[in-house]
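Researcher: Here's a chain I'd like modeled. Treat it as a single chain, no partners, no ligands.
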Amino acid sequence: MTTNKITRRDALAKTGLLSAAAMVLDQITFPTTAAERAPAKKAAPFRFCLNTATIRGHKLGIVKEVEIASQAGFNGIEPWVDSIQEYVKGGGSVKDLKQRIADSGLTVEGAIGFPEWIVDDDAKRAKGMERAKVEMDLMLQIGAIRFAAPPAGATGLPKLDLLKVAERYRALLELGDQIGIVPMLELWGFSKNLNHLGECVLAAMETGHPKACVLADVFHLHKGGSDYRGIRLLGPDTIPVMHMNDFPTNPPADKIDDSFRIFPGDGSAPLLEILTALHKTGGTKVLSLELFNRTYWTQKPLEVATTGLAKMKAVAAKVA
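Model: Modeled as a single isolated chain. C-alpha cells:
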C-alpha cells in the first residue's frame, strides 16, 4: 500500500497561499548595501548654540555675531532682543538678517529679552505683555523658535505665589501660541522669585499648557542653590535649553555674580553630572554658551567663541 506524503509547501500551493506569499515578497525591498543594512542613527543628544552675551562686550552688532557663531562651528545662535532692535534702527532688514542666519547654517534657538510679564502690578504687567508681544514677534521674524521669560521686574521681595506665576506664564504661553514662538520660564538664581529649579518646574507644570518649559543655567543652578540631581525627575520636554558656563570655587554662591562665569570645564561645576542627568530625561538638548566674563571681552571674539565651543563639546562627549 502506497502512502502519499503531502509536504507543507504542497498544502500551501493547493490553497493558493504560496502564490500570495510570493506576491507579497515581490513587493518587499530588502537592504542590499552595508549602509542600508545599518541601524538608523539616533538623534544627537546635544546641539551647540552661542548666546551672544558671550561676545556682547565686543560690541560687534548682530551681523558680525552671526558670522562669528558660524565661523566657530556652532549649530545655533541665541541673540539678545536689543541687538536686533539696534540693527533695525540702523536701517537693517529683518528679512535679510533671517536669510543671513539661514545661509550661515545656524538656527535661532532662542532670544533674550526682559519684558515684565510676571509682576503683581496689573498696569506694569499689561505693559510687560505688550512688550513681550512686540519682542516675540520681532524674534519670530528672524526665525527664533523660543523666547526667554525670566522674572524680570520681580527679582526682589515680596515672594510671588507660584500658582499666580503659573497663571501669568500660561497667559504668556498663549500669547506665544498666537505669534508662533515658545516662551521658556527662565531660572534666575540671584532673584527672590524663580531662583530654584523646582519653583520653575512647578509653575510650568501648573500652567497645564503643552508647551510649558524651563530655561535652565549652570551658573543659576549654583547661585540659587538648586541640586542638579532633581533633573532626573523631569521629562524630555521640560528643559529644551541649558545655558552653559562654569564657575570657580571662590567666591561662594552668595557672593558670586555673572562676571565670574568661565568656560565650561575650567571651574568646579559638576558639568558632567548635570549633562548626564539632562541627557537621561530624553530628547535632544540645546547647550547654549552664555558668559559675561569681561576678561574674555578683551580677547578676539572668534577665539572666545571657538574656545567655548570646544570646551562645551569636550564635556558633552563624556556623557554616556
